[in-house]
Amino acid sequence: MNQPNKDTKVQKKAKVESYDIAKSDETLHLAVDLAKFIKENRLYQNIQGKEYVNVEGWQYAGSRLGILPVVEHVVNISTDDEIKYQAKVNLLDLRSQQVVGAGFAICSNREQGKKYYQEFAIASMAQTRAIGKAYRNILAWVIRAAGYEPTPSEEMDYGGNEQAAKPAVPTEKKATMKSAAAVEAKADTEEESTSVRYASAKQKEEIISLLNNPTITRQEKTKMLLNINRFDEERAAQAIEKLKKVIEDREGGQSAAA
């Protein structure tokens, strides 16, 4: 008599590991998940009283839908007096193996706050912006449903003239520029060259598949998903081998315990 209730409880406790963008009810559940995840990990910036999600938050949303960014190109369009890069990123749906979105972006050292950026940081920011732009084109409403502004925080750099009306303070401005450059340089130490061969879509798909193994914890899965787009081919191959070994060890331990 009590069995049906027990089954119902089990069903209620079942966790959704991935969502389908074609199903509105599932994406609304994703919005709730996003709101919690972004807040807990502070993956947003407060700009003039509004909260904008960092590209890592957009990547997390995409990964839960099985949609990953693939860098198509990062092109140097610099001139003699300007460092400038253009990037294009495609979004690959792992279920259908179809490109479902794309984003273009440009970054220049002539932008406010980027005068002291090194060339690799300019190239990296163009790529980062393109990733955010690509996701924004298809997931803006999900981010809005999660309670955040539907524009990636990195894209807000384009609106850097908002303080133009305030009196300029050269010493403070210079310090701010240097600080921003230091933060960006630190975040992108692994991308010192635009010639890096980034992880292929096939490698990313294999990593996602391994991460869905029940022996991998949610924390481990989240950490790797947030960094997957920074992997080059070698690092992706190492991650795949490491995951395989961890899964094999853990499954072997469970078998022994049984």
Q: What is the structural class?
A: alpha+beta
Q: Globular, elongated, flat, extended or rod-shaped: what is the shape?
A: globular
| Tally of helical segments | 8
| Topology pattern, helix = H, strand = E | HHEEHEEEHHHHH
Q: What is the rounded Rg?
A: 21 Å
User: Averaging pLDDT over every residue, what do you get?
Assistant: 76
Taken as a percent bin, the fraction of beta residues is 15-25%
Ends distance:
30 Å
How many distinct beta strands?
A: 5
Task: Please bin the fraction of helical residues.
Answer: 40-55%
Major sheet description: 3 strands, antiparallel
Per-chain topology:
Layout: H1 3-13, H2 24-40, E1 44-47, E2 50-53, H3 55-64, E3 67-76, E4 84-93, E5 98-108, H4 119-145, H5 170-187, H6 201-211, H7 218-227, H8 233-257
Antiparallel strand pairs: 1-2, 3-4, 4-5
Helix pairs in contact: 2-3, 2-4, 3-4, 3-7, 6-8
